[in-house]
Automatic annotation (TrEMBL):
<protein>
    <recommendedName>
        <fullName>Diacylglycerol O-acyltransferase</fullName>
        <ecNumber>2.3.1.20</ecNumber>
    </recommendedName>
</protein>
<feature type="region of interest" description="Disordered">
    <location>
        <begin position="98"/>
        <end position="141"/>
    </location>
</feature>
<comment type="pathway">
    <text>Glycerolipid metabolism; triacylglycerol biosynthesis.</text>
</comment>
<keyword id="KW-0319">Glycerol metabolism</keyword>
<dbReference type="GO" id="GO:0005789">
    <property type="term" value="C:endoplasmic reticulum membrane"/>
</dbReference>
<comment type="pathway">
    <text>Lipid metabolism.</text>
</comment>
<feature type="compositionally biased region" description="Polar residues">
    <location>
        <begin position="1"/>
        <end position="11"/>
    </location>
</feature>
<keyword id="KW-0812">Transmembrane</keyword>
<dbReference type="InterPro" id="IPR007130">
    <property type="entry name" value="DAGAT"/>
</dbReference>
<keyword id="KW-0443">Lipid metabolism</keyword>
<dbReference type="GO" id="GO:0006071">
    <property type="term" value="P:glycerol metabolic process"/>
</dbReference>
<keyword id="KW-0444">Lipid biosynthesis</keyword>
<dbReference type="GO" id="GO:0004144">
    <property type="term" value="F:diacylglycerol O-acyltransferase activity"/>
</dbReference>
<keyword id="KW-1133">Transmembrane helix</keyword>
<keyword id="KW-0256">Endoplasmic reticulum</keyword>
<feature type="region of interest" description="Disordered">
    <location>
        <begin position="1"/>
        <end position="82"/>
    </location>
</feature>
<feature type="transmembrane region" description="Helical">
    <location>
        <begin position="167"/>
        <end position="191"/>
    </location>
</feature>
């Protein structure tokens, strides 16, 4: 189809109509290029839609162009605003031109909805749901925010992690050594070593009771590892008066608590500086004789300077060795109260089973050792104990175990390794071990080991009075959260 040139206008050497470009083997031309270059041909003949000479007024300005108005039979109908199309040109770093349609004014606002996604268009023919008609399930993970268990954060300092490791080691030494022993028993190659070892420890060895302290290792007691253990709570040792190194002593530790962590830190290690506070005195912490029947653990306990709490062991320690070969400068620490007291070791209270406990008083009179009361503020706060009074069947079971095995285990819990509410590790609560004044004891006893009952009661009364004095003197300093006063029961 031929096109008629407009008078006074030079014909376009490159046709723009698709039919003419096809006749000259030219590729189709885009509408945007045709508009940007202006009209190149005459108006179309009657009945066709063409681009008039007025299209130059709609040429692109600053990269944005609008298509010329359509003419039908020479007339320009009015075009609604919503049908106007605006083009945008974008030039990249390589000079390539990208042409796109400019979006509507509400597009940018739709992208900013909720900061990420565009909102859905409302369907006007359907009203929104009422709020009371919306039913939703629980939100996943919401329970962690209100959980009763408080989990330890990941950014805990290294020193606190090492402190927890030290306490974990101390509380699990017996099961760890037992597990190691049974593991070795499963290996036949170790039997030639294990059998003689068991015969020696169970039949021959008397190291836990002979009082020589030959297996005591000052290096293990003074290790920096125990400083981590003591600083976990933290624990402190307080002296009220100096002790003469020319005498011998029996330290009575109160309360028993669950595991007596304060007694171990103060008297089985040098973490709290016992040798600095009481120079010239060699103190030995006493524990159950059954602990020295546990393979491997007995050797560990002997190296830490522990000994049996039996009568034979106490008399040997306080009557042998020392500065004069008769126990001068030696001391033992006995955790008074035993299993019965541990069953009532409730936090923020102090209930001592002491009225009928006179065996250690009698040993002090027989050996001529002075009695030194020790009160550990905070020992009962390290664990939460289930009240056996409210559960009679639990109490009966515990007393049956005590009768058969010589000890019992209270039902307790504290914190774990990675949480603060569930586990068998003690709480991080301060333990202040206060050592009282010594009660001078006159040695008595005949060949049949009889002790004057009146003198026994007198010394016991003085001992209890010193404990009460320690409580009254330091309760406002170390027991500010107490729920009651000191109780001494049978």
């Amino acid at each position: 189809m031929a096109s008629t040139a407009v008078e006074g206008q030079t014909p376009n050497p490159e046709p723009s109509q698709p039919e003419e470009r096809a006749e000259h083997n030219l590729p189709p031309r885009s509408y945007a290029d045709a508009v940007s270059n202006g009209p190149q041909e005459n108006d179309q003949i009657e009945g066709r839609i063409g681009v008039g000479s007025g299209a130059k007024e709609h040429a692109a300005v600053n990269g944005s162009v609008q298509p010329p108005p359509r003419t039908v039979n020479g007339q320009n109908p009015k075009q609604p605003d919503e049908e106007k199309v605006v083009y945008e040109k974008h030039v990249n770093h390589a000079g390539e031109i990208l042409t796109s349609i400019k979006p509507s004014a509400g597009y940018e606002d739709s992208l900013k909805h909720n900061g990420k996604t565009a909102p859905r268009e409302k369907k006007h023919n359907r009203p929104p749901k009422r709020q009371d008609e919306l039913a939703s399930g629980r939100r996943a993970g919401a329970g962690w925010e209100t959980s009763a268990i408080r989990w330890a954060p990941l950014n805990v300092p290294l020193q606190r992690r090492l402190q927890t490791l030290a306490v974990l080691w101390h509380t699990t030494t017996i099961p760890l050594f037992l597990s190691t022993f049974f593991l070795l028993c499963a290996i036949p190659l170790t039997w030639p070593l294990l059998i003689p070892y068991l015969i020696y420890t169970l039949v021959i060895s008397e190291e836990a009771t002979n009082g020589t302290l030959s297996r005591r290792s000052q290096w293990m007691r003074g290790s920096k590892f125990w400083s981590l253990f003591a600083s976990y709570f933290p624990a402190r040792l307080h002296r009220t008066i100096e002790l003469e190194p020319t005498r011998k002593y029996i330290f009575g530790y109160h309360p028993h608590g669950i595991i007596s962590h304060g007694a171990f830190a103060a008297f089985a290690t040098e973490a709290l500086g016992f040798s600095d506070l009481y120079p010239g005195i060699t103190n030995t912490l006493l524990t159950l004789d059954t602990n020295f029947r546990v393979p491997f653990y007995r050797d560990y306990a002997l190296a830490m300077g522990l000994a049996s709490v039996s009568r034979e062991s106490i008399e040997n320690i306080l009557c042998k060795g020392g500065l004069n070969g008769e126990g001068m400068g030696r001391a033992v620490t006995i955790v008074i109260g035993g299993a019965r007291e541990s069953l009532g070791a409730k936090p923020h209270s102090l209930r001592l089973v002491l009225k009928s406990r006179k065996g250690f008083i009698k040993l002090a009179i027989r050996t001529g050792a002075d009695l030194v009361p020790v009160l550990a503020f905070g020992e009962n706060e390290l664990y939460d104990v289930i009240d056996s009074v409210q559960h009679p069947w639990i109490h009966k079971s515990q007393m049956l175990i005590k009768k058969l095995m010589g000890f019992t285990v209270p039902l307790f819990h504290a914190r774990g390794i990675f949480n603060y509410d569930v586990g068998l590790l003690p709480y991080r609560r301060a333990v202040n071990v206060v050592v009282g004044r010594p009660i001078r004891v006159v040695q008595q006893g005949t060949k049949d080991n009889n002790v004057d009952d009146k003198y026994l009661d007198q010394v016991h009364k003085e001992y209890v009075a010193e404990l009460v004095r320690l409580w009254d003197g330091y309760k406002d300093l170390f027991a500010q959260d107490r729920h009651g006063e000191l109780e001494i029961v049978d």
